[in-house]
Write a structure and sequence with these properties.
This protein is mainly α. The protein has helices at residues 4-27, 33-41, 46-60, 63-75, 81-94, 97-108, 112-128, 133-165, 176-190, 193-205, 211-224, 226-233, 238-260, 262-273, 278-298, 301-309, 331-355, 370-380, 385-409, 413-438, 440-447, 452-474, 481-509, 514-547. α5 (81-94) packs across α13 (238-260), α12 runs antiparallel to α13 and α17 (331-355) packs parallel to α20 (413-438). The chain is elongated, with a radius of gyration of 31 Å.
């Protein structure tokens, strides 16, 4: 039968982790623009960057928040490799502040004098002032801190029970590397070194383990902290992977040296620094190896950054298919590739707009792009609609960037006029996709509704959309082109007006709730706008292609 002490220890760990989660959750507001600007401005100098990383981590009590934010800033190109590494190194020092706080408050003060009033007052304030944003967030942070301390108290008390009923001496003869591995595994699982340190401090306080074993476990926890940053870099840019690698190298090297010279360092802290209390000795050891490690790396940070920049080649993540192979210096080649890229972009927009209605295909959108569209569909098959849309936005942005470069080199007025029309085509196509994206959640609701009226309306919209794109795709560049386009325009205007009248009749007879009526009007408006925009995009593209004698086959 599992003892009550075991469950108390589990409850303590759970409360501690939950307290950490609450604190992080309420402090995540700092991940906004102001926090990003602070990091950007305070990391221009590597020494200041280290200090900033230390202070911010000490305040947030979580190196994970800081490190993951650094990854995002590096990925966006806001932070340089060297300065990002400096912040990450500082975060390693700042992460030990939590250990000092726990050592002082958790083991040298009667926690009940703090914990119960803190939880009680914070809970009351959160309930009373739940509409007062600032008070609510401050109270939530205090509540998290209260749970953290309560969990610590439970773990301390449970360790006393272990001391009475368990003989751990039979395990203490194992090699220290076993305990280092234990610290690594625990931290990798629970994703926070603070909880591992608390468990070790509690065991040390109850005199269950000697100081050298405690230090070995904490060194393992230092390694375990690298896991979250490593996971955060997976699938990211090469810059993100370099920062994660830099943090891993730092932690592995400091842990290795700390483990090898464990006894001399512990003796140095006891004799030279004068810290003999095992609780503070452990925390001082953790802090010292991080400080010495950062000071060592500081003088080689430039070379370390250069070394990391040679790691992980940046994979070409361009969302385009033709322009990456174009030659700007050859005007006709650039214009040809630009024309094809715009044509393919319009096809991609049509493809994604259709997929919003769960329509995989209707007709060949364009024979010359058929194979590319097959590859594109395989790439985005598992994407959500939002991810598909963001991929389109990336492609549009790259097309605009290429357009700007073309304008700098192009001198032929005819060619300039052509690319201006083509870029307008891209803007209209992108707007068409945006209109569908804005109503996507409403479309999903209609398609999944058990209300027959709603579901039938979804089927009607799907039928209209299928008819629209079928007619649009089948239009050829010929003498009847303009008349065919006008027929389609007239049809979508008629459909739009008919649905307006239908929705007003539904509002009158209360077939739908008032909220649903508003949603239906919004869907009708956005669909109509999407149709008009894609027509404009296609007209501009086909007319320009005809003028440049690059007809779609």
């Amino acid at each position: 039968m599992i003892s009550a002490d075991f469950w108390m220890r589990c409850a303590g760990l759970g409360l501690f982790l939950y307290g950490m989660y609450i604190i992080e959750d309420f402090l995540k507001q700092l991940e906004g623009r102001s926090f990003k600007l602070f990091l950007q401005k305070s990391t221009q100098n590597k020494f200041v960057a280290i200090i900033s990383g230390t202070l911010v981590t000490a305040i947030l009590q979580s190196s994970s928040i800081v490190n993951l934010m650094v990854l995002s800033l590096v990925g966006a190109g806001i932070l340089s490799m060297q300065n990002a590494l400096a912040v990450v190194l500082g975060a390693n020092i700042g992460g030990t502040f939590n250990s000092w706080l726990i050592a002082f408050l958790g083991f040298k003060i009667d926690l009940n004098m703090i914990t119960f009033p803190l939880i009680g007052m914070a809970g009351l304030l959160m309930t009373i002032f739940k509409r007062k944003k600032n008070i609510y967030k401050i109270s939530g942070t205090l509540l998290g801190f209260g749970f953290l301390l309560l969990g610590l108290q439970f773990m301390k008390e449970s360790m006393n029970g272990v001391l009475k009923h368990t003989d751990l001496s039979i395990y203490l003869h194992y090699n220290r590397i076993v305990f280092l591995a234990i610290g690594f595994i625990i931290t990798a699982i629970i994703q926070t070194s603070s909880a591992t340190v608390v468990l070790v401090l509690s065991a040390l306080y109850a005199k269950l383990i000697p100081i050298d074993i405690a230090i070995a476990v904490v060194l393992g926890a230092e390694l375990g902290t690298t896991i979250k940053l490593f996971i955060g870099s997976i699938g990211g840019t090469a810059a993100k992977k370099r920062v994660a690698l830099g943090n891993n190298i730092f932690n592995f090297s400091t842990t290795f040296l700390g483990f090898i010279f464990l006894d001399p360092i512990a003796t140095f802290i006891q004799i030279v620094i004068g810290i003999k209390d095992p609780i503070f000795l452990l925390v001082a050891f953790q802090t010292l190896i991080n400080v010495v490690g950062v000071l060592t790396y500081y003088f080689f940070l430039h070379y370390f950054g250069k070394f990391l920049e040679t790691r992980f080649k940046e994979i070409n993540t361009s969302a385009l298919n033709f322009l990456p192979h174009s030659v700007l210096e050859i005007s006709t080649s650039a214009l040809d590739m630009f024309n094809k890229e715009v044509g393919f972009f319009i096809c991609r927009v049509i493809n994604i707009n259709l997929s919003a209605f769960q329509i995989k295909s209707i007709e060949k959108i364009d024979a010359q792009f058929e194979q590319l569209l097959t590859i594109e569909n395989q790439t985005i098959e598992s994407f959500s609609h939002a991810e598909k849309y963001n991929r389109l936005k990336k492609a549009a942005g790259e097309i605009h960037a290429f357009y700007a470069k073309m304008l700098e080199k192009e001198s032929n007025p005819t060619n300039i006029a052509s690319i201006n029309v083509l870029i307008e085509s891209v803007r209209n196509a992108m707007y068409s996709a945006k209109c569908i994206k804005d109503i996507y959640s409403d479309l999903v609701e209609l398609s999944n509704s058990i209300n027959e009226n709603k579901y039938n309306l979804y089927l009607q919209l799907t039928k209209e959309l299928t008819g629209f794109y079928t007619a649009l795709i089948l239009i050829e560049n010929n003498t009847k082109f303009n008349s065919q386009i006008n027929n389609i325009r007239n049809q979508i205007k008629t459909d739009f007006d008919n649905k307006l009248q239908l929705f007003y009749s539904h509002a009158s007879d209360k077939t739908f709730a008032a909220k649903d009526i508003s949603t239906l009007f919004n869907i009708n408006r956005e669909l109509y706008a999407s149709y008009k925009a894609i027509i404009l995009a296609l007209v501009d593209y086909k007319e320009t292609s005809l003028n440049n004698k690059m007809l779609i086959k």
